[in-house]
Amino acid sequence: MKTLKVEFPNSRDEMLSGRLDLPEDEKPRAYALFAHCFTCGKNLKAITHIGRALTAEKLAVLRFDFSGIGESAGEFGRTQFSSNVADLLSAAAWLSKEYQAPQLLIGHSFGGAAVLQAAQRLSGIRAVATLGAPFDPNHVRHLFSQELETIMATGEAEVAIGGRSFNIGRSFLEDLDAQRVEERLSKLKAALLVLHSPLDKIVGIENAAQIYRAAKHPKSFLSLDSADHLLSKEDDARYAGQMIATWACRYLQLVTVPGIETDVIDNRVTVRTGEQGFFTELFANGHPLVADEPTIYGGSDLGPSPYEYLLSALGACTTMTVQMYARRKNWPLRSAVVRLTHAKIHAEDCQNCEVEAGKIDRFERELELQGDLDDLQRQRLLEIAERCPVHRTLHATVEVVTRLKDVAGA
After folding, report:
1. Structural domains in the chain, sorted by start
2. What pTM value is reported for the model?
3. Averaged pLDDT for residues 93-115
């Protein structure tokens, strides 16, 4: 995915800092808003992994810091739950003006409670997903329970949350008390997906049950099994993102909106590898793929290796070519299966190679033809397999031209 740094004003003219995650070289099919957990911020690793899973399904995601958090302006001590909801409304308004109105709201923990409230005040929201969300925003009181008396007596107090200090004011607590959660949930008109871990020690699983019971259909629940509250394991965050993307596409309006194309912007194959490991995103003709390396080579084994993709290309071309020929001849070929391996061998071990020194690449194919074919037909299809375009490319003289892309200001 590619990420744009953005900023926009909230209702109090404070500039909020955000990141817009977009599919690589493709126009998004829909847009989503992500609300982070209490004091967490938009750059939490889990949010990045979830955004990557969503963009793989061509869903753009705007994640931003609430007022007073991270890179956003404002004083955290003056914020409230209601101001977080207002920030979400400002983010939606900016997204609608600059790109396209969001159809999907995603909220993590306290942000989950916020998106459930914001959904009532945003037109066009078709789906809402919560991750480890509390049923009642008042749940956050336990984070500073020892300072409650001081806050109510003096108007505010400094509390430590996650190793950082924040000022919590009396107005924050009063605002929490004013929320009518069950009433809001009963009026939710969007589809709801509740994701929660039964082992969540920060927000108990009973909160998911309360949210589910209060909402009307369509509603779904997905267990995050052994995940922790912050989805700190990459696999857990990716799983959550993939499930949200798959579920949401059932409810989102994935149609072309005037001025918004849903086709591929750049019809070249696009490949991106980040700064850590070898996990690589590929976009080919609008189709998202991933590549990686085995863990023994420093990868995370989340996808095929480049050579495995090369074998796949040769194999797909082989079976397609064989089937194309069989159909033209009206031969009863039910299916064609090819199994391939690749190895580096010494040139002197190759009987039909022109090169006599060094090492060469050897691709071996085993072709299985399923169907009521006679021996002559099978032999002819074996000959046709040798003529597939990718096979010919591998045997031809190939030129690879590489150039640096001009970057403005470089």
Report:
1. 2-248 (3.40.50.1820), 306-395 (3.30.300.20)
2. 0.69
3. 94
